[in-house]
Specification:
mainly alpha; 208 residues; disordered N terminus
């Protein structure tokens, strides 16, 4: 493995920022599902394209970790943050894929609580994308992780209310099973955003 001794730490921040910007694109696509006449197959395919791009970013990040002699902060933390950003994208892609493959958008309307969960994810994505460039200076990050954790609590409430709706008898049993799987992916994405925020907090504390 050839190591680089030149200062390349800026590359890490650029990759984190690109990965987070992809999450904003992903949640924007999920928001399209609330639009009348939306092409669900197109949304699902575009989410897959973004997920593939995020995978490429993550692999590039790992290559940089392994070939750079001096990293801007702990290699383990760089690896964990990159992996967690990728995890969020995986969950977002799964939501779009499941909604399309299960034909759930043929329902008269998706549950309101599902859209509320997507809205929480959209806010978390924008917060995360805004925070990543600030990692370089390690300043003005506390508000980010506090707000991201608060939003995760909002997501938990929306998830619980979605479960109440699903088991109210409004939907047939098969539809409930399908929607429950989508709900679980949405809730997992909210949790994954919180994991990113917690890792940023850990890094900031170590570097302060």
């Amino acid at each position: 493995m050839k190591f680089s001794f030149r200062p390349v730490e800026g590359v890490f921040y650029e990759l984190f920022t690109k990965a987070a910007q992809n999450l904003v694109l992903g949640t924007a696509l999920l928001n399209e599902l609330a639009l009348p006449g939306v092409d669900v197959q197109s949304v699902s395919e575009r989410l897959t394209d973004i997920e593939h791009d995020s995978d490429a970013i993550t692999h590039e990040l790992y290559k940089k970790i392994n070939s750079t002699f001096v990293t801007p902060f702990d290699r383990e933390d760089i690896y964990q943050l990159g992996s967690q950003l990728d995890d969020v994208m995986d969950h977002l892609e799964a939501v779009g894929n499941l909604l399309y493959l299960y034909g759930l958008t043929k329902l008269p309307a998706l549950p309101r609580e599902l859209h509320e969960l997507v809205n929480v994810l959209d806010q978390q994505a924008k917060l995360t994308a805004d925070a990543m460039p600030r990692l370089k200076a390690m300043k003005d990050l506390e508000e980010y992780w506090i707000e991201c954790n608060r939003l995760e609590n909002d997501g938990d409430r929306a998830y619980r209310m979605l479960l109440v709706r699903l088991f109210s008898g409004e939907y047939d049993a098969l539809t409930v099973l399908k929607l429950k799987e989508v709900a679980d992916e949405l809730e997992a994405a909210c949790d994954a955003f919180e994991h990113v925020a917690n890792t940023v907090e850990t890094i900031a504390v170590k570097e302060s």
